[in-house]
Amino acid sequence: MALFLFLFLIGCEKANEVENPAPDSPFLVILGTAQDAGYPQAGYQDEWKAIDLGQRKPLYTVALGLVDPKNNIRYLFEATPDFKEQLQMLDEVSTTDNYPFDGIFLTHAHIGHYAGLMHLGKEVMGTSSVPVFAMPKMKTFLEENGPWSQLVKLNNISLKPTQDSTLLELSGGISVMPFTVPHRDEYSETVGYKIQVQNQSVVFIPDIDKWNKWDVDIREVVKANDLILIDASFYQDGELKGRDMSLIPHPFTKESMELFKDLSEADKTKVYFIHANHTNPILDINSAEYEEVIKVGFHIAEQGQIFSFDQ
After folding, report:
1. Rounded distance, CA 303 to CA 19, Å?
2. Is the pTM of this model over 0.85?
3. Which CATH architecture group holds 16-309?
4. Which of 21, 44, 82, 282 has its CA 20 to 30 A from that of 71?
5. How many CB atoms lie within 10 A of CB 52?
6. Domain range list for the chain
7. Considering only CA atoms, which of 273, 229, 238, 233 is closest in space to residue 250?
8. How do residues 190-247 score in pLDDT, each as one tens digit?
9. Alpha carbon distance 231, 192 (integer Å)
10. CA 22 to CA 223: how far, in whole Å?
């Protein structure tokens, strides 16, 4: 069964431009592709200059939108520092009776993945009971630490507890399952998500430590699902000058490609690299590294990209 009715693979001209989705099918939209600090990053003047010169485009922090247009429902995966821009992106292609979202799913308590919740508070939107799905430690972190605890106290958000590998049935044949992955968990556990629409599945793992630290074979995950969006923080060792990268143990993009080299061509096409640090050259579609990833059969997620599900 073909997973997608169509696939938008061309980078958008504007940072917040989204391809028009199919009118009735559920769809995913990529709302950001960069690591927690986005691109350009604070203080990196060469990156800001590249934007000014039109050589690069701004990229938001990793987030997904999941939309069910028939039932007028939409969900957000990750509440990033680019929340307002990403909400606007979704507003341009979807609606909901429970504005701004019917639910927000968080992966963990690092700034690029939850800090956008601040926009729901009284200083900004002043929302009422927006469902926020969180694992036990993440839930406790939000309840016990300000300013997030104020969101709970004022009922701007309604925390919905989730459990490892426990399926959540949503509307319209959509289900979501969080699963824990190894990562530096100073404030909360870290999860990926399996998103299922009817019998089609997407796996989203924006943050994880080296693949061999996980008790699951990621190659089997690729084979068993229809689309995989995985952590590509750094391209290769030595990318961060003057820093010991063993202390930041994300799987390098090159490591993942080597691990996946014996997958079938069909399975390779399921793999989309996402959550790239501002130093990772795959964020530049004109780089040799970007071309290398594409040449060997993988994909790099594009901001504004749409994946529509069959029905």
Report:
1. 10
2. yes
3. 4-Layer Sandwich (3.60)
4. 82
5. 10
6. 16-309
7. 233
8. 999 999 998 899 999 999 999 999 999 999 999 999 999 999 998 986 677 777 666 7
9. 10
10. 26
